[in-house]
Amino acid sequence: xxxxxNKKYVGTYIDLFSGCGGLSLGLGNAGWQxxxxxxxxxxxxxxxIHNMVxxxxxxxxxxxxxxxxxxxxxxxxxxxxxPDQLAKLEGxxxxxxGGPPCQGFSLAGMRNSNDPRNKMSQEYIKMVGIIRPKxxxxxxxxGFNAVFKNGVGKAKKVPYSQIVKKAIEGLGYKVSKNxxxxxxxxxxQQRTRFIMIGIREDLIADDNEVNPFEILNxxxxxxxxxxxxxxxxxxxxxAISDLEISRKGAKLIEHSGSRExxxxxxxxxxxxxxxxxxALMRKGLNxxxxxxxxxxxxxxxxxxxxxxxxxxxxxxxxxxxEERKIIGTKKQAICVLDPKKPSKTITTLPDDxxxxxxxxxxxxxxxxxxxxxxxxxxFKGKYTTGGKDRTKECPRYTQVGNAVPPLLGEIFxxxxxxxxxKI
Length: 423
Hints:
alpha/beta, Rossmann fold, DNA Methylase, Chain A, domain 2, six-stranded mixed beta sheet, two-stranded antiparallel ribbon, 10 strands, 32% helix
């Protein structure tokens, strides 16, 4: 498989906890070549394979190893079933990237030091120890760098990030960590992420004081200019206004698909003047229409509730306790988007965020736009999952909410390449 990106080849990488492919999409666009990826959810992995690996995809850039089936799996299974194959990769991979599951660390959720998903960071560390890449990149929520109030032992005294950092340093890496704000890199969303980057110590000369985050900030301006994006944050209206169903001339049609009876979608036709961000997201469509445009079927009572929320709420700010009492809801995280500012963080729950103008939740495509997925990126699987399956499956809304924004992934790829050139 040849990297179809126009970017210069940078190096080879492995994506752990790949999800639907946001980080890999960005790395591929930056010129990186993938070797394989690990993702346990079948729906998210089907989206990943369709866009990142299949020959007919413009974003395909993986030379998939012949010993690993292209199927959903876990790092634990990989370590158990393929120890010899992994050992042969030692020193031959440039980058291991990944964002271990964040639910147990999220400040927006029920932070739990005993959440079993937290331990997946340990599997990430095991892979680093076996393969010993030149670089490693770990992405997570802000809470990864905060102390657990309910923690025991080390987890009560220091952030989990510090435990992981110390373990990676023990493997012979110089580790730097900091927060990165997605809206500073073209993503129309206030999505603060904790980033840890490691450089193998034998690659760094004793007198070479590399400051990774100084390098990242130094390439920001040129990155945005290259993308045709403004230096100031992109507002949510500039990101998705062309997808409004109330826009002049907008038309709704039946949503296609045997399981989608009764659903509507926007019969998308671009306006005469696209914003720079909209033009960037639509660049690869070549006249075709984006997928995942299905509108939710809200009951009249739900629409009335959303209209009330829009009337009493402060745009861009989560409903207060008093406002929730007026609405009659105990749901903690409802927010109406502020059209003049970047979106609040897109989560895995579609009803956390309401449209800034229309009484409805966002479509998958609108959420994907706010995450900076291009319009020709195709999502696979169900749209939503309810009830007891919500914690077990990864439908389209969840795939989008869990993803690393591709624009952020791309500048990360450029960033590691810049660091590589300076050591």
